[in-house]
């Protein structure tokens, strides 16, 4: 049985120096709160100093998010902007070690990524240098096997990555689903059969049914986001969709962790998501709120 493979360190840009404009800090805060904090926030320190990830089912093992506070020894205080960008793009640290379970944001726009980096350098209390070491990983055999087959580093983009204009609602919505918020990662069939480079090739793309755990360690499955009328969102109104993703109130009842709270989504984002979901091939896949029984 092979362990997690090691790789050559990624080609980090030596010249990247992100300017922290007010726009970037605001966008970076919004993106870190929606897409990083649920995994990285430690409830004891109340900083992003890392924790046991609560929502992974035990078949992946015990996986701990890392300390990404500004601590120079234990956090990312000593990393360059180029090293951070390379980690977010490829999943590889400057040491060439593949970061398990940490999503690779390969389709995120350069501007979004640099906004995240700007915020990670800011004086927000969540990032206060916290001198605790990141926990060693305890991957299961399954997870080790997956890192030898499907869960692999993604390549550094060779071209600038730009987000489509919000006026092109469908293209913008696709960008939000695969690039910015990565809804498809949780909402396709299984983490083990996702395709990071070509997200639409993930098994059961956006059809839900991926088994996760909530904060009480009870099983939840993600829901079908395709427009199937019986098992998906085909019978929802745009207002119900907005209410569900912004405030966690679905027509089926309240939504809880691990569904993130996207309370800061703009109208353009909500409209784009809804417009894009209309174009995704429908999948018939009943989840428990449709009356399906799961073990
Ligand atoms: C699904 C949970 C999850 C999400 C979401 C997530 N991370 Fe991580 N992250 C991890 C895990 C787990 C590790 C440690 C992996 C390892 O050591 O093998 C990690 C490692 C890292 C590291 C490397 C730190 C080090 O010292 O090795 C950085 C930097 C990082 N994450 C930043 C982010 C940022 C920024 C975001 C949001 C854009 C984010 N992460 C979202 C789980 C997550
Ligand atoms: C970290 C995993 C994760 C991510 C990322 C995620 N979701 Fe979810 N989502 C869930 C889970 C789990 C549920 C079910 C929650 C529950 O049962 O309380 C859910 C439920 C939903 C529902 C309710 C559907 C219904 O039938 O009631 C909608 C709508 C939804 N998500 C949309 C989105 C959108 C849009 C995105 C991206 C902007 C997204 N989700 C990102 C995990 C996730």
From TrEMBL:
Q: Where is the Cytochrome c domain?
A: 23-124, 168-281
Q: Which Gene3D superfamilies does its entry note?
A: Cytochrome c-like domain (1.10.760.10)
Q: Does the keyword Transcription regulation apply?
A: no
Pfam families attached to this UniProt entry? Cytochrome_CBB3
**UniProt keyword Heme, yes or no:** yes
SUPFAM superfamilies, per database record? Cytochrome c (SSF46626)
Kindly give the InterPro entries that the UniProt entry links to this protein. Answer: Cyt_c-like_dom, Cyt_c-like_dom_sf, Cytochrome_c-type_DH
UniProtKB keywords: Heme, Iron, Metal-binding
In its UniProt entry, what is this protein called?
Cytochrome c
């Amino acid at each position: 049985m092979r362990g997690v493979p090691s790789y050559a360190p990624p080609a980090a840009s030596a010249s990247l120096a992100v300017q922290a404009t007010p726009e970037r800090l605001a966008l970076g805060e919004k993106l870190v709160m929606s897409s990083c904090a649920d995994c990285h926030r430690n409830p004891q320190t109340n900083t992003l100093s890392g924790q046991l990830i609560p929502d992974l089912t035990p078949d992946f093992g015990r996986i701990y998010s890392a300390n990404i506070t500004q601590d120079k020894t234990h956090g990312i205080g000593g990393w360059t902007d180029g090293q951070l960008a390379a980690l977010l793009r490829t999943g590889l640290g400057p040491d060439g070690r593949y970061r398990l379970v940490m999503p690779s944001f390969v389709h995120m726009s350069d501007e979004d990524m640099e906004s995240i980096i700007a915020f990670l350098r800011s004086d927000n209390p969540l990032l206060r240098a916290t001198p605790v070491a990141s926990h060693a990983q305890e991957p299961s055999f399954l997870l080790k096997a997956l890192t030898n087959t499907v869960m692999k580093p993604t390549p550094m983009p060779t071209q600038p990555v730009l987000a489509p204009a919000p006026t092109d609602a469908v293209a913008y919505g696709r960008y939000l689903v695969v690039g910015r918020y990565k809804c498809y990662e949780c909402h396709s069939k299984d983490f083990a059969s996702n395709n990071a480079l070509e997200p639409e090739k993930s098994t059961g793309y956006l059809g839900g049914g991926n088994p996760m755990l909530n904060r009480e360690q009870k099983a939840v499955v993600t829901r079908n986001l395709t427009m199937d009328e019986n098992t998906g969102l085909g019978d929802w109104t745009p207002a119900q969709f907005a209410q569900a993703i912004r405030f966690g109130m679905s027509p089926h009842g309240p939504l809880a962790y691990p569904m993130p709270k996207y309370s800061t989504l703009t109208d353009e984002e909500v409209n784009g998501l809804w417009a894009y979901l209309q174009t995704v091939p429908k999948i018939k896949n009943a989840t428990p709120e449709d009356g399906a029984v799961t073990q």
